[in-house]
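Protocol step 4 of 6: structure prediction from sequence.
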Amino acid sequence: MAMMRLRREDPRVVGAFRLHRRLGAGGMGVVYLGADKRGQRVALKVIRPELAEDQEFRSRFAREVSAARRIRGGCTARLVAADLEAERPWFATQYVPGPSLHDKVAEHGVLSAAETASMGAALAEGLVAVHEAGVVHRDLKPSNILLSPKGPRIIDFGIAWATGASTLTHVGTAVGSPGFLAPEQVRGAAVTGATDVFAFGATLAYAATGDSPFGQGSSEVMLYRVVHEEPDLGGVPDALAPLVYACLAKDPETRPSTVQLSERLSEIAAREARGIGAPRREGLPKAAGPRPERPVGRRAEEYAQQPTQRRTPPRLDGPAPGTGGQPKSAGRPAGSRPAPRTPAPTVPATRAAVRTNASRRPAPTAPGRRLMRQRLAVFVIVTLLVAVFIAAVQGCHRFTHAAGPSGAARTAAPAQHAPGASRG
């Protein structure tokens, strides 16, 4: 994790912690690296002054800190201390050494299928503990996941939400990061554990491809894609694509639970580590092909402002997804410029799809038959040659055997005469 020197306006001591470096800054405040008298290092976040003056924010902040105390297990950075009544509220969590998932992918490239599945299994198990504590993170994304030597850790519960709490954000605003927000967050609906599952699926896609499954663009365009378009999973490994697609379902009720994700990803990680690969399940959608060209500039703004139309994707065990066409614009004023239409994606042309289709295509039989005929012809020829050779050898043997006795008789006659002459 990158560290920066303290600035002139930064505090040097907060509570019982002495601050040493800046770790980063966000919409809520600044995060510092600090340590107590025993040398325990912490990541300490100090809330911005303008937020500290907002009593509504203080109420939410106090509730979130209380909820974070209930989280058990090693999946998150443990809450160490907090002061909710200070002039500028702050809280300190255990410092986690290691880069974020975002920095890891940016510097060293995407993770393999086995690495992504292994990391995902640990994160899913962590989300089980978070949700059991009655907390919804609401901003799960690659920069909020630290890859420590002991496994991934979820950090920054600054906008986390206690289950059942009323919404304190203003109407029409979405708290979180475009591309990793769930559709219900964009619409301003209630958030549940399924909201984190959506962000979890987008995070897995990022780990495997280095990009959000909804591409890049302005916040308006990104939020429109999250609500209306199917994700682009063209670069996600085949073993993970169906599970990631299920996490990114528009309807929260159809997304898998964190327990199911943990079990399934553990199986995939074990298979990939052994080089087996996860078996494809019938009825699960394959990774989507390349995303069709989208408008930019002014056309993109018009594209994002079109009326919403809810669409429910298939379940985990349902049929493959449709083309994900753009909803028609209803009630457009006369004379207004029609919104650009997104062409339906063509047949997937990714290398993964080509490999999969090639593996399923039956092997051609003509070359095999021709090779069998050739081998049969060679066998017959060799057999005939061997038979001719054996016949020739046998013929020569008969000839030699027939000529042998007569020659012996001719040579034996003088030998018999000689003894008889000497006796006479």
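Step 5 (inspection) to follow. The domain at 12-95 is CATH 3.30.200.20 (Phosphorylase Kinase; domain 1).
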